[in-house]
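QA checklist item 7 of 12: single-chain prediction sanity check.
[x] sequence parsed
[x] length recorded as 452
[x] structure emitted
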Amino acid sequence: MNLPSAYEQEMKELLGTELEAYKKSLDLPVMQGLRVNSAKITCEEFEAVSPFSMEKVPWIPNGYFLKEEERASRHPYYYAGLYYIQEPSAMTPASRLPVEPGDYVLDLCAAPGGKATELGSRLGGEGLLFANDISSSRAKALLKNLEMAGIPNIYVTSEDPEVLERNFSGFFDKVLIDAPCSGEGMFHREPRMMEYWKERGPEAYVPIQKKLILQGAGMLRGGGMLLYSTCTFSRKEDEEVIEYLLQNMPDMRLKEILPYEGFAKGAGLEKCVRIFPHRMPGEGHFLALLEKSQKTGEDSGRDRRRPGKRKPQKMPDCVEEFLSLLACPIDRERLKLDRDRLYLLPIREEMPKLRYLRTGLYLGDLKKNRFEPSQALAMALKPEAFVSCIRLEPEDVRAVKYLKGETLDVSDLPVTKQKGWQLICVKDYPLGFGKLAGGVLKNKYYAGWRWQ
């Protein structure tokens, strides 16, 4: 691979005698990977049902290498949200931010959702995940991936981080910033990135990165943690951005990152981590974990409250009728009927007015005198949480037909209710809703997600 001469010189200064090993690694096959969605299935359960040839990613608890020829996006389990297709080194940032159930988590540059879906799954439905991307089109892809993963406690926005900082000073327990960068770690996978690099190299991104990291740190509560990452090798975009933060916010300090034998130390900041493709399988990444000091007497953030607590709304009869089909508890103070759309908010308190794509779990729509449940609700449920389910085997052609939006004959399958709403599953993993009458299932799979 012919690298840009200026880039090769920078890498020589960074790697020294390892430069040739790095260059040779760029001629190796591209690594494919998937990350199991632990909110839906354990790794042991997935290994038992997986049709793919896989090998564990040793530094990611739920990560796997895939053979290059595997088409993991063309399987019903993908549509059930059991895994996310992700390059192995890109799995690392979310795995090293210590998110716990109940945390308030911000992913500031979240699209398309590879890191946000992992952060959301580790919340276990408690607390909230605030996922933002300034690009509206990319934020739509982010929303789809979060809903496919079955993450219920989300706010998804497409806002300038400056707006978020004004509204959420000291609000979040954990912040992840996978910053836009010159993408040097992408040269192997996407050689065309080298042309973009020549036009728009590290210098173009540094001002954006420095601004983002200050904004992210400003939204972090005392005692909270921030993880900054890039998929580039430039010290200007990596260690120098961290040094800039430490100079401007003395209440931030670097933390050790959970180690792995293949990780390289940061250049001048040894607590940072560099992933190089000649040292371990993966395209490359940079990570830095930081903690904000907590002032004496400062609230831990667990009991924070925003002004404007909501009042419970009275729900129409058709909504009450549908909610009776759910065998899971619903906090009625978090139900919000906005025009004809029903949501289950992550928290009871009102949030500021922003450019939201989603506020919580989208439950469904009022249509005249009936209620139609949403695709997002189906993906967030477990089979035992709904009154009646239809289970299809992944080898059953009806699984793909359902994903294509076709009407199905399911008269041979056991059901609890012989008519009305059904949760359609591949084995025990929901795909969507359908409506049953006389052994025929009317397909309600969301058209925008259909198998093409």
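[x] summary fact logged: The two ends are 35 Å apart (CA to CA).
[ ] second reviewer sign-off
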